[in-house]
Amino acid sequence: MQEFVVLQSEKVKVPLFGLGTSHAGGYSHDAVVHALRECDYHLIDTARRYGNEEKLRVALQESGVPREEVFLTTKLWPTDYGFQSTRRACIAAMNRLGVDYLDMYLMHWPECLSSVDDPSRVREDTWRALESLRDDGLVRVVGVSNFLEHHLEEMLDYASHPPSINQIEFHPYQNPIKLRKFCKEHGIQIMGFCPLAKGKILNDPVLREIASRVGKSPAQVSIRWSLQQGVITIPKSVRKERILENSQVWDWELNEKDMDALNGLDRDYHAVNRSVIQAKIDTALPDGYKLNTKLNMG
């Protein structure tokens, strides 16, 4: 059974588990419909950059799941940062998704275009736009993605209240204790992407031993580890059988010893290379440029 976390700032209930999407590895229409219709997924995460918002519109409609039962999250790409451009980008995202409100809208990265003279001012203007979108009822929850402590400290100087969400890479190989502590102290909920480290962690001997002993897959153990720490978790897959497997994490728990063993695996490993993000922001690549057209069935 799906569990939820309540964001205190907005009093909004967010599913603790959902489906991540991206442009890397492709997009499967049938897999998204399967997740919504058959596997009890109630949160979908996407972004303008992934180039799949219009495809998700079709999948959401075909699934037959009522709009109010799907917590829809998308993200603002840095080339759209700024007060007016953020509002325009939000409306455009809603149009692509075929909805009249977003459940969650996030700043995708703290970085801005290199041509920007004052990135701090641009981030501030962007955040004020997000707050106005929330106040206008176009967005229920506003937050950030990939922000580190110093980025969040800057925001606290001008935000009406801290961002409700910080979406970060989170798995046993990437367990940023200091950042998590900072977020907890300021009421910022962690949302974790890449809970399987793009498959890197699945052959870890500690993870595999625990999985074998509890009768679950290494992927299920890694996802369960994340959920038991109260982190909103969004594994990605384009395979129906994996989507079902990833969702079967509610009727069992890891014991304290196993949790401690997995906590000890942190090695500051990033499946997503932050060092190349600035170049990607500055390069005029089309949204969804990595999508595998063989999987584009929607």
UniProtKB/TrEMBL annotation:
List, for all copies, the residue spans of the domain called NADP-dependent oxidoreductase: 28-265
Q: Where is this site: Lowers pKa of active site Tyr?
A: 75
InterPro entries reported in the protein's UniProt record = AKR, Aldo/ket_reductase_CS, NAD(P)_OxRdtase_dom_sf, NADP_OxRdtase_dom
Which keywords annotate this record? Answer: Oxidoreductase
The record places the active site at 50
Question: What Pfam families does this protein map onto?
Answer: Aldo_ket_red
MF terms from GO for this chain are: oxidoreductase activity
**Record-listed substrate binding positions:** 108
**Which family is it part of?**
Belongs to the aldo/keto reductase family.
- The protein's name is NADP-dependent oxidoreductase domain-containing protein
Q: Which organism is it from?
A: Darwinula stevensoni
Source taxonomy: Eukaryota, Metazoa, Ecdysozoa, Arthropoda, Crustacea
